[in-house]
Amino acid sequence: MQVFSYFAVYFIVWWMTLFAVLPFGLKTQGEANDVVLGTVESAPARFRGGRILLVTTLVSAVIYGAWYVLSVRLGYGLDSLPQFYPDYE
Fold first, then answer.
1. What is the mean pLDDT of each run of 10 residues along the chain (89 residues)?
2. What is the three-state SS of the chain?
């Protein structure tokens, strides 16, 4: 696999992890009883962009590392999945 392909896979993992990490630790303006005029109650009371980016990067690095070891170093892929199930024939 080319180097650009590794970056593309990491970017996809990072992007999916971002949407999984976004709701963790979120306190809405409605929960804080401090709704700013012109916003909805479900808007974040205090947006922590740096924290979200850091956690997303760390979690996606772990997921990407596991994928890299399993697929590139050990050779497991989607074709290997049927080998994990017992053969009942």
1. 88 95 90 90 90 96 93 80 65
2. CCHHHHHHHHHHHHHHHHHHHCCCCCCEHHHHCCCCCCCCCCCECCCCHHHHHHHHHHHHHHHHHHHHHHHHHCCCCHHHHHHHCCCCC
Collect all residues with Cβ–Cβ distance below 8 Å to 22 and sequence separation of at least 6: 52
Q: What is the pLDDT of residue 74?
A: 87
Q: Amino acid identity of 57?
A: T
13-46 CB burial, b ≥16 within 10 A, e <16: bbeebbeebeeeeeeebeeeeeeeeeeeeeeebe
pLDDT at residue 82, rounded to an integer? 66
Q: How far apart are CA 11 and CA 44, in angstroms?
A: 25
